[in-house]
Design goal:
ten-stranded mixed beta sheet
Length: about 150
Protein backbone atom coordinates (compact mmCIF):
# COMPACT_ATOMS: atom_id res chain seq x y z
CA UNK A 1 0.00 0.00 0.00
CA UNK A 2 2.71 2.52 0.99
CA UNK A 3 6.11 2.80 -0.63
CA UNK A 4 8.49 4.27 1.91
CA UNK A 5 11.79 3.17 0.41
CA UNK A 6 12.16 6.40 -1.59
CA UNK A 7 14.25 8.98 0.25
CA UNK A 8 13.62 12.71 0.37
CA UNK A 9 15.18 15.90 1.74
CA UNK A 10 13.83 17.65 4.85
CA UNK A 11 15.02 21.02 6.05
CA UNK A 12 14.18 22.88 9.27
CA UNK A 13 14.22 26.66 8.84
CA UNK A 14 14.19 29.24 11.61
CA UNK A 15 11.84 32.19 11.11
CA UNK A 16 13.69 35.24 12.41
CA UNK A 17 11.77 38.43 11.68
CA UNK A 18 11.55 38.82 7.92
CA UNK A 19 14.29 36.25 7.33
CA UNK A 20 14.48 32.48 7.37
CA UNK A 21 17.63 30.44 7.68
CA UNK A 22 18.25 26.69 7.63
CA UNK A 23 19.13 25.22 11.03
CA UNK A 24 19.03 21.49 10.27
CA UNK A 25 19.04 19.40 7.13
CA UNK A 26 18.21 15.74 6.49
CA UNK A 27 19.34 14.62 3.05
CA UNK A 28 17.75 11.15 3.21
CA UNK A 29 14.41 10.54 4.96
CA UNK A 30 11.35 8.52 4.02
CA UNK A 31 8.06 10.36 3.52
CA UNK A 32 6.70 8.66 6.65
CA UNK A 33 9.58 10.07 8.70
CA UNK A 34 9.01 13.51 7.18
CA UNK A 35 5.25 13.43 7.81
CA UNK A 36 5.84 12.27 11.39
CA UNK A 37 8.18 15.20 11.99
CA UNK A 38 5.77 17.64 10.31
CA UNK A 39 3.09 16.51 12.76
CA UNK A 40 5.22 17.36 15.82
CA UNK A 41 4.52 20.63 17.61
CA UNK A 42 8.10 21.10 18.80
CA UNK A 43 11.63 20.33 17.62
CA UNK A 44 14.55 20.05 20.07
CA UNK A 45 18.05 20.73 18.72
CA UNK A 46 21.22 21.36 20.75
CA UNK A 47 19.10 21.91 23.84
CA UNK A 48 16.98 24.63 22.22
CA UNK A 49 13.20 24.26 21.84
CA UNK A 50 11.66 25.34 18.55
CA UNK A 51 7.95 25.57 17.78
CA UNK A 52 6.60 24.26 14.48
CA UNK A 53 4.87 27.12 12.65
CA UNK A 54 4.11 25.32 9.41
CA UNK A 55 5.44 23.14 6.67
CA UNK A 56 5.42 22.99 2.91
CA UNK A 57 6.98 21.30 -0.07
CA UNK A 58 9.53 23.09 -2.25
CA UNK A 59 10.90 21.91 -5.58
CA UNK A 60 13.42 19.46 -4.17
CA UNK A 61 12.64 19.27 -0.43
CA UNK A 62 10.15 19.38 2.38
CA UNK A 63 10.47 22.35 4.74
CA UNK A 64 9.38 22.79 8.35
CA UNK A 65 9.46 26.39 9.56
CA UNK A 66 10.08 26.92 13.26
CA UNK A 67 10.44 29.79 15.72
CA UNK A 68 12.35 29.88 18.98
CA UNK A 69 9.92 28.73 21.64
CA UNK A 70 9.18 30.50 24.90
CA UNK A 71 9.38 27.09 26.60
CA UNK A 72 12.40 26.40 28.77
CA UNK A 73 15.30 24.88 26.87
CA UNK A 74 16.19 21.30 27.67
CA UNK A 75 19.46 19.79 28.87
CA UNK A 76 21.52 18.58 25.93
CA UNK A 77 22.36 14.91 26.23
CA UNK A 78 22.24 11.79 24.11
CA UNK A 79 19.94 8.92 24.93
CA UNK A 80 20.73 5.30 24.18
CA UNK A 81 17.25 3.93 23.60
CA UNK A 82 15.51 2.18 20.73
CA UNK A 83 13.26 4.23 18.48
CA UNK A 84 9.98 5.04 20.16
CA UNK A 85 7.83 7.59 21.97
CA UNK A 86 8.25 8.77 25.53
CA UNK A 87 4.83 9.50 26.97
CA UNK A 88 5.20 12.20 29.63
CA UNK A 89 2.91 14.05 32.02
CA UNK A 90 2.58 17.60 30.70
CA UNK A 91 2.75 19.14 34.19
CA UNK A 92 5.45 17.11 35.96
CA UNK A 93 7.34 15.91 32.85
CA UNK A 94 7.51 12.45 34.49
CA UNK A 95 7.65 9.57 32.04
CA UNK A 96 4.44 7.53 32.20
CA UNK A 97 5.32 4.99 29.53
CA UNK A 98 7.79 4.31 26.74
CA UNK A 99 6.33 2.92 23.54
CA UNK A 100 9.06 1.20 21.52
CA UNK A 101 8.66 0.64 17.81
CA UNK A 102 11.06 0.66 14.90
CA UNK A 103 8.11 1.21 12.55
CA UNK A 104 7.81 4.93 11.72
CA UNK A 105 4.26 4.49 10.41
CA UNK A 106 3.28 2.98 13.76
CA UNK A 107 4.90 5.90 15.61
CA UNK A 108 3.10 8.37 13.33
CA UNK A 109 -0.19 6.70 14.18
CA UNK A 110 0.50 6.98 17.92
CA UNK A 111 1.46 10.66 17.64
CA UNK A 112 -1.80 11.37 15.83
CA UNK A 113 -3.84 9.89 18.69
CA UNK A 114 -5.92 12.35 20.70
CA UNK A 115 -6.44 9.84 23.51
CA UNK A 116 -4.37 6.88 24.66
CA UNK A 117 -4.91 4.28 27.36
CA UNK A 118 -2.00 3.16 29.53
CA UNK A 119 -2.45 0.69 32.38
CA UNK A 120 -6.22 1.22 32.32
CA UNK A 121 -5.98 5.03 32.53
CA UNK A 122 -7.06 7.31 29.68
CA UNK A 123 -4.86 10.27 28.79
CA UNK A 124 -5.40 13.18 26.42
CA UNK A 125 -2.53 14.39 24.27
CA UNK A 126 -1.59 18.05 24.71
CA UNK A 127 1.43 18.25 22.36
CA UNK A 128 4.28 16.24 20.91
CA UNK A 129 7.87 16.82 19.89
CA UNK A 130 10.80 15.31 18.11
CA UNK A 131 13.93 15.54 20.23
CA UNK A 132 16.80 15.43 17.77
CA UNK A 133 19.38 15.53 20.58
CA UNK A 134 18.06 12.32 22.12
CA UNK A 135 16.78 10.77 18.88
CA UNK A 136 13.27 10.18 20.23
CA UNK A 137 9.70 11.40 20.02
CA UNK A 138 7.89 12.73 23.09
CA UNK A 139 4.14 12.89 23.62
CA UNK A 140 2.85 15.10 26.42
CA UNK A 141 -0.44 14.06 28.00
CA UNK A 142 -2.79 14.90 30.83
CA UNK A 143 -5.31 12.62 32.53
CA UNK A 144 -8.55 12.61 30.57
CA UNK A 145 -11.52 13.67 32.68
CA UNK A 146 -14.89 13.42 31.00
CA UNK A 147 -17.04 16.47 31.53
CA UNK A 148 -20.44 15.69 33.02
CA UNK A 149 -23.33 17.77 31.72
Amino acid sequence: MFKTNNLFVLEYRLLDGDFTRPIYHFPFLSKVQIFTRRHCDYFILNGFVYENKGSYHEDDRYVIEVIESELENTPYYHLKRPLGIEIRDVHSFDEIHFYESGDELDLFSWLQSTYITINGKVYEQTSNEVDQDRDTYVMYVKPFIEEVE
